[in-house]
Amino acid sequence: MIENAIQRKKIFEEVIKNGKYLFVDPILFAFLSKKTNDERNSSINLIGTLVKKKF
Fold it and tell me: b/e for 17-36, b at 16 or more Cβ within 10 A?
């Protein structure tokens, strides 16, 4: 299993709704950068992928 995979449907839906998109036929990539609440002011980058049902 991939260590940093998006495992919650709620988080994946947030990436799809609020993210930026890149389409490379037949794959759609959605990107989202979220700020964390720790002292270092770092951010988390989330990537979601969608593939056409045919494939």
Answer: eebeeeeeeeeeebebeeee
